[in-house]
What we know:
This protein is an all-alpha fold. The protein has helices spanning about 10-25, 35-55, 60-85, 90-95. The protein has four helices and no strands. The two termini are about 25 Å apart.
Amino acid sequence: MSTFRDLKIWQKSIVLVTNIYEKTKSFPIEELYGLTSQVRRASISIPSNIAEGYGRESKKEYIRFLNIAISSLFEVQTQLEIGKNLSFLKENDFNLL
């Protein structure tokens, strides 16, 4: 493996970020600086931390960044659940994400 771009988990997380941006376009405008911004930033954190950890010098640091990425994923899951509960996301879009 020569680059973080070869990691399947990084590739899948990029797809997730793209889908989240698409699906949150329909969130209410008053949520632009609230839930919309929060879920987008948390989703961006996932592939970013995978890539940053990949570039670190030690396995221990890499694992630390992977743990941060997992924590961001849990944050995204929570925020999407809130969006679904508030009817910002349809059930099928929630399940897709």
